Amino acid sequence: MKFLIIILSTLSAISPLPASAHDDALRPGTDDYLRQELGLTDEQLAVGMPTEDREPFESVTGEAFIDDPLGDVLDRVGRTTTVQQPWGDIGHASIERKEGDGVWEIEVTLGGDLPVKPSGRAVFHAYADADGVPDNNAPNEGVRGGMDAEFTLEHNPDNGWYTDFRWYNPEPTAQTWGINKETAMRFRIKGSVITLSIPFSEVPAKEPAWRLVMGVSDGSRTEIDVAPGIGFPPAKGTARPWYRPLIAWYESAKPADIILGAALLLSTAYLAWKRRK
Prior knowledge:
Layout (H helix, E strand, L loop, with lengths): L1 H13 L17 H5 L23 E2 L2 E4 L22 E9 L4 E8 L10 E8 L20 E8 L3 E10 L6 E3 L7 E5 L2 E7 L9 E10 L2 E7 L16 H9 L2 H22 L1
């Protein structure tokens, strides 16, 4: 066992971890991550599909930290985008319950500084299951799926930056997103960071579900990033092959990376075997 530890320590010293092998080549606002890390092809990234026809989007619960890769943005139907704005790409986000202030604070770091006056339309959505009751949420389809509140920070040339709010009405005669309620949400923009402060009165659940969406549009062209999650989910009833990221890494990795990856895999298996004995 000591010999194995020595080998792993030596390999770690001479070779970077595989996960960071391509970080410098990933451009914010592009689909570089989807191509280089997941191995998606031009053909796959040219097929459009509405978000409602896809598997459910992921969400996080309560206080959380979201680490979203740069280079995983798409247009509104999941194709390669030509907008390519770095500030339209979510890098990471935190959601914290501020008891003293009586608010949920959502802090989002983007792949570049937000312009004071974007040339097109920019919109950031924080979706929530505000009351924590799944029975009155929107159908689990599209980026709003499984949520009942939409907190929005938006910019357009006519109004500048402003807040907006929608809520899901589950009544059988409605089942739509209402616009007849206001939000007391506050916001702050500093460089590449957006901070939202949402009162507990508007999200009373102790452990609400959350989903974040950043969107940029320039005429009919769009750029969308959803967090958590990498890119968009696959079509309903399908799943991304689990082995594609491994193959993509293997095809571009250096020999030392492959050796280190194999050694780490073997050591993990050995430790698991030892615990079972």
